[in-house]
Amino acid sequence: MARRDHWEQVYNTRAPDKVSWYRAHLETSLGLIERVCPGRKCSVIDVGGGEATLVDDLVEAGYQDVTVLDLSEKALQVAQSRLGPRASAVTWAQGDITQSRLAPARYDVWHDRAVFHFLTSAAERQRYVSQVAWSVRPGGYVIVATFGPDGPEKCSGLPVARYDAPSLHHQFGARFQLVQSSVEMHATPFGTEQQFVYCMCRIEPE
Which one, of 94, 114, 89, lies nearest residue 26 by Cα? Predict the structure, then answer.
């Protein structure tokens, strides 16, 4: 099954709060974005944002240039419906982040919770990193969260790559200066825990 078809099936057959990665509010992600952009005037892209409520909280907090990109059209529709009239304040994009055409130096903050760890081939990871370097302006920030070393080996039936902070940072290279890393134990809707590792980097000028 193609990757897009897989995720369309997931989002068409499971309620938003019945997937393992569901969290009512992504407090860690929002806190990091507010830390690097307290003035709310930066441009933010949430990669794999899907049905997540981070976009709701960003709009509520006053961020005016927010983009949500996801592979699943259904996931984007769920988020748009939930936001109602406020959805018009957000740029919505459907596509595979390793193949999407993004504008150069467009974003100040790149956020990804639980997409990068699905990229299990070196070629996919390299395309992803190239997209970040292309579309985030020099001096901008990259926030990526993946399963940690003690996290699951699969998610929604797909294999994942697990990282600690040094190995995750290593995937991006020297131009990405590590600012902060942390570990978060995510409580799933099913009463289990998943270990997530967050890394926040600043992109240095070439």
Answer: 114
